[in-house]
Amino acid sequence: MDKYIEQVYSSLVEKDPGQKVFHQAAYEVLVSLEPAINKFPQYQENRILERIVEPERIIQFRVPWKDKDGKIQVNRGYRVQYNSAIGPYKGGFRFHPTVNLGILKFLGFEQIFKNSLTGLPMGGGKGGSDFDPKGKTDSEVENFCYSFMNEIYRHIGQFVDVPAGDIGVGAREIGYLYGAFRKITNTHGTCVLTGKGLTYGGSLVRTEATGYGCVYFVEEMLKIKKTDLKNKVVTISGSGNVAQYAVEKCNHLGARVVTMSDSSGWIYDPDGIGEKKLEYIIDLKNVKRGRIKDYADKYKATYQEHGRPWEIKCDIAIPCATQNELDGKDAMKLIDNGVIVVCEAANMPSTIEAQEIIHKAGVLFGPGKAANAGGVATSGLEMVQNSQRYFWTAEEVDARLRQIMSNIHRRAYVTAELFGQPCNYVLGANIAGFLKVADAMVSQGHTA
């Protein structure tokens, strides 16, 4: 590691020693930025790295709410407003017991570069709470969302900060949050949240966008190898929104998806999770809130309670679940089984060791900040439609999403080549995303 970059990294670790996942995200980005820092001395002169690793603002607050028994519960709420050099802060709210400041800094830091890559004017941010909506009644979730918004409303807005959903924040939660914002502020029609319902300002294809976008990115990567998705075997982890629509788009493009998973285990269906089977999974997970094992029981598929689906022979692996779910051993299994593309649909699902092993083996690796940018890109398109007071058809939104993902791939690919590391999408995506933000910060002066 370059001495200057090492100093920046050591300083942030020293300031926040317990934030391991944030350290991992910052390390991966900082190491890959070394060629750009050496080539363009103005970034070091303006201390861009020291500034970009520090959030512009962190908001932390209590969220008191009444449960179904009338008892007051208290959770913590957060918003990390990381960087607004190229546009208002943009990034989701996550409601999950694991939420803490380190997790949100990791996600917000990644969001800076992801949003930059889309080409849309969006800065980076992230927020949420350690509240767990799982198992709560609708009334309890509504009570929590109103209390959460009663504080955060003063820090967000269409020209300031535009949150969206994330883990634990789906259509129900976004609806309650938007309803609370509208009642508290007496304001309607502004794009203060994205992922809204279609009846009150949401965009078509937003639900599908992250999964679809990742598969479009895979499609672009395969063009480098002069092939496509037709008849390719795909392993996918997760069974939530992103995984569901990644499976759907793989099916549309002629691939055969053979695995999915949840926190209880994973299934292997060598015949493929086709359209009818996927409909069952969507109902199972979205309506019945069931476990993936039920799919194995119904369709006589293999079910494994332990391990991960990366031991299955495949052409393409798409991790869609959570951070660090694909480690070095998993990477070696994938390589031994002949994988040609690994593409991240979740946020940092591969460890640094796994990334290095995959890259050294000559396997194409699509990092999440590039490959899973389809969700936030379509959120940006929702903002555009809200500003116009006009809505596009699903075909129009999907076409724009596909073009954005193609553009992101081109930026990452070309940047990697310019810096002498062809097909290193991690380096290409990080540098391409960084340069736009860094140039804006230099242009706007030392306080930006």
Number of strands: 12
Distance between the termini: 27 Å
Which architecture of the largest domain per CATH? 3-Layer(aba) Sandwich
**Considering DSSP H and I runs of 4 or more, what fraction of the residues is helical?**
40-55%
Overall structural class, as computed from helix and strand content, comes to alpha/beta
> Quick one: CATH class of the largest domain?
Alpha Beta
Q: Remind me, CATH topology of the largest domain?
A: Rossmann fold
How large, in whole angstroms, is the Cα Rg? 21 Å
Helix-strand topology string: HHHHHEEEHEHEHHEHEEHHEEHEHEHHHH
- Total count of helical runs of at least 4 residues: 18
Average of pLDDT: 96
Strand content: 5-15%
In CATH terms, the superfamily of the largest domain is Leucine Dehydrogenase, chain A, domain 1
| Bulk shape | globular
Secondary-structure topology with pairs:
Layout: H1 3-15, H2 20-32, H3 34-39, H4 42-45, H5 48-52, E1 57-66, E2 72-83, E3 89-95, H6 101-117, E4 124-129, H7 138-152, E5 161-164, H8 171-185, H9 209-224, E6 233-236, H10 241-252, E7 256-262, E8 265-268, H11 275-286, H12 293-299, E9 302-304, E10 316-318, H13 328-336, E11 341-343, H14 352-360, E12 364-366, H15 368-371, H16 374-388, H17 394-418, H18 425-443
Parallel strand pairs: 3-4, 3-5, 6-7, 6-10, 10-11, 11-12
Antiparallel strand pairs: 1-2, 2-4, 7-8, 8-9
Descriptors for this entry?
448 residues; Rossmann fold; globular; five-stranded mixed beta sheet
